[in-house]
Amino acid sequence: MKRQRPRMTYEFRKVSFSRDVPRSVSLQELNDEAEYDKWELARARISVGGVRTVWLRRKIMPLTQSA
C-alpha cells in the first residue's frame, strides 16, 4: 500500500497599497510580513488605477496529537 503525504494547506491574506504609497514602503512592509510572520508571495497585481494588490500565503501547520 502506498503511503500518501498529507496535503499542504495554506491560508491567504490580501494586502492592497494605494498608488500614493512609495514602492520602498510597500516592499518593506511585505518584507516584514515574510520575515516575522512567515508569509510568502502568492500573487501580485497592479490595477489600472495604480493600486497594487498582493496575495500572501503561509502554510497551516497540522496539529499533532500526543499519546
Task: Tell me the layout of helices and strands.
Layout: E1 10-17, H1 23-37, E2 40-46, E3 52-59
Antiparallel strand pairs: 1-3, 2-3
Question: Can you walk me through this structure?
Answer:
The protein is α+β, with helices and mostly antiparallel strands and 67 residues long. It has one domain (10-59). It is 22% helix and 34% strand. The protein has one helix spanning 23-37; strands at residues 10-17, 40-46, 52-59. A 3-stranded antiparallel β-sheet has the order 1-3-2, with helices on one face.
User: Gyration radius, to the nearest Å?
Assistant: 17 Å
Q: How far apart, in Å, are the first and last alpha carbons?
A: 25 Å
Q: Bin the helical content.
A: 10-25%
Neighbour order of strands in the largest sheet = 1-3-2
Helix-strand pattern: EHEE
How many strand units? 3
Note the main sheet: 3 strands, antiparallel
Q: What form results from the Cα inertia axes? A: elongated
Low-confidence segments, given as residue ranges, are none
Integer average pLDDT: 88
The assigned structural class equals alpha+beta
Concise structural overview:
It contains 1 helix and 3 strands. By secondary structure, it is α+β, with helices and mostly antiparallel strands.
